[in-house]
Amino acid sequence: MNVLIRATAFAANKHRNQRRKDADASPYINHPIALADVLANEGDVADEAVLVAAILHDTIEDTETSMEELVALFGHAVAEIVAEVTDDKTLPKAERKRRQIEHAPAISRNAQLVKLADKICNLRDIAACPPANWTGERKREYFEWAKAVVDGLRGVHPVLEAAFDSAYAAKPSASSLA
Ligand code: NDP
Ligand code: ZN
């Protein structure tokens, strides 16, 4: 039984009608796969629970998936990591973003790894294939918020933190008209 492939098939099905926010409306599943790729192949992370949680990280937040479903199919350890990186969607957006900064230092090391990979991938996406209609200022705000989250978990994985810093270097300049 290959759990990583099973999780990928599960997430692909859950996200099957969703698209990323870039102009090409890329398939949603590209993003969770990118996180697992960053963790495994740039960060040398071999812990299966972390890689599986990366694949599943947006299922509770963005699809009809319950914690119970993840526990039943992938076990407590994986489900707990996903829960730790899931925003409370009943809260206003600004409060959710504030809480991510506040909680980053306190979540488990495994959840910090998934969160770090998520921020790396989203900054790379904003640089290469940004949400359609985002201004330069909106991109800058996102870069700065992502850095505030990552600054709260520094020390968890220096190689991936360096990858984040490289991605952050692409922050649009204040004068950018993009
Ligand atoms: P969103 O949360 O709406 O969009 C960013 C999220 O979209 C990412 O975290 C990522 O989440 C997902 N995503 C999907 N496709 C892409 C892609 N191609 N590139 C990068 N990310 C992608 O935006 P904000 O994070 O900016 O949240 C809204 C906040 O922005 C509010 O708090 C508000 O204050 C502010 N705002 C600012 C405006 C401005 O013009 N400055 C206008 C409106 C709001 P995931 O990993 O979960 O998929
Ligand atoms: Zn994500």
TrEMBL record:
<dbReference type="GO" id="GO:0008893">
    <property type="term" value="F:guanosine-3',5'-bis(diphosphate) 3'-diphosphatase activity"/>
</dbReference>
<dbReference type="InterPro" id="IPR052194">
    <property type="entry name" value="MESH1"/>
</dbReference>
<protein>
    <submittedName>
        <fullName>Metal dependent phosphohydrolase</fullName>
    </submittedName>
</protein>
<feature type="domain" description="HD">
    <location>
        <begin position="28"/>
        <end position="123"/>
    </location>
</feature>
<keyword id="KW-0464">Manganese</keyword>
<dbReference type="Pfam" id="PF13328">
    <property type="entry name" value="HD_4"/>
</dbReference>
<dbReference type="InterPro" id="IPR003607">
    <property type="entry name" value="HD/PDEase_dom"/>
</dbReference>
<dbReference type="GO" id="GO:0046872">
    <property type="term" value="F:metal ion binding"/>
</dbReference>
<keyword id="KW-0479">Metal-binding</keyword>
<dbReference type="InterPro" id="IPR006674">
    <property type="entry name" value="HD_domain"/>
</dbReference>
<keyword id="KW-0378">Hydrolase</keyword>
